Amino acid sequence: xxxxxxxxxxxxxxxxxARNELLVAFRxxxxxxxxxxxxxxxxxxxxxxGKYLRFNPNYIFALYKxxxxxxxxxxxxxxxxxVFSHPFVNPxxxxxxxxxxxxxxxxxxxxxxxxxxxxxxxxxAMAEELAALQQGGKLTxxxxxxxxxxxxxxxxxxxxxxxxxxRDEHGPWYAPPEQKVPALSxxxxxxxxxxxxxxxxxxxxxxxSADGAADGAAGGAADxxxxxxxxAISRRIQVDLETASQxxxxxxAANLLQNVQExxxxxxxYSDFLRKFAVLGEDMxxxxxxxxxxFYTYGLKLYENIPLIEPLEYKEVRKIKDFVIAIDTSxxxxxxxxxxxxxxxxxxxxxxxxxxxxxxxxxxxxxxxIQEDHKVTSWEEFQAYLKIMELKGFGGxxxxxxxxxxxxLRRKGEFDNLKGLIYFTDGYGDFxxxxxxxxxxxxxxxxxxxxxxxxxxxIKLVLQQDxx
Length: 468
Known about the structure:
Elements: H1 2-25, H2 30-34, E1 37-40, E2 46-48, E3 52-55, H3 57-66, H4 68-83, H5 95-113, H6 123-133, H7 141-150, H8 155-165, H9 171-174, H10 224-242, H11 246-249, H12 254-264, H13 270-274, E4 279-283, H14 293-302, E5 315-328, H15 335-349, E6 355-366, E7 370-376, H16 379-388, H17 400-411, E8 420-424, E9 439-445, E10 459-463
Parallel strand pairs: 1-3, 5-6, 5-8, 8-9, 9-10
Antiparallel strand pairs: 2-3, 4-5, 6-7
């Protein structure tokens, strides 16, 4: 027992030495490196659950003998998992694919940092593999998970990637909250395949909208307060990289910055967003709020089946009536994506509580000039248009013609109370110089290459494809 205690104390000293070396090299990670407590646990290698960095003393000794780079690399690998909210995971996801995605994302960052303190024996092999994986887009855990979900790797390919990128155990992520020191089912590097069962190897609300990879924390790291603490640390790192550390780190931290931006990206409920364009009006429905049951029941009692007061058949509600949906039909726009966006918008607005029975919606197609304006006044017309809609234009992108056209319609009395305009686009264009007299939102699809800044008077909404 005393021997074990001495081994644990020595391992803690080694880990603190590694942490101090990392603090000197990465000052912007100070809060993240000092956040987890060091704790020996029933674990074969190394693992983090947000609160504790758990370790097996013998594994720490083995890493230390290989050189400081191996130990530093493994420690920072585990810390980065919490910085990017990897442990706060929806338990219903495919654990194997999520684990692999998180490990690859973290190793991509460590490879790009290119620091002597992080050098490992497998560094060159990982660099080659990361270069190949990066051809498919950004190496964030959420995007990699979606990629692997859409096209799962073969068992052999999965095992090869797992052996190359896995450096810690992820069992604590999936352990029950009441299990203080979770017993893990295996080690980093154990033989496993993408079966959808929990394994101990590897890692946007973050939620990920389509696949749910992180849209609700549960399991071993399901402490909302703990997740909030790591979220605050992640935001601190993002601000530091965007300001004070920008000159000293520059492109070397580009991948790290992309990952923290992905984690901290504000997520939107498109349904709630559309309701911002609602106006106050009367709707034909019973107004229970202003209905007096006392007189009503008194009448039934006094005159048998004759109530004294009938319920009001209207009430004031906030719904959408006048609205403009502008579609960018420049050459880069995908017709299928436009169809999906309009269908999503229709499904939300078609809900009884969202729209008045009589509507006035203009669907305007425009590239560098107005190509088509289709007016719909009922849900039947909206649905019929979706079936026959054909994109027109495919020229350059200029947002100004739509605003001039809508202003002309307003002057002609086409709208009673135009509350807003949504402009669906995926490219750059010329914006109006002045704010229109109605709210305007530019909706972009995240294509991994960034979107233009919009004027200060406009709302910028960036959605993932799976969010529409």
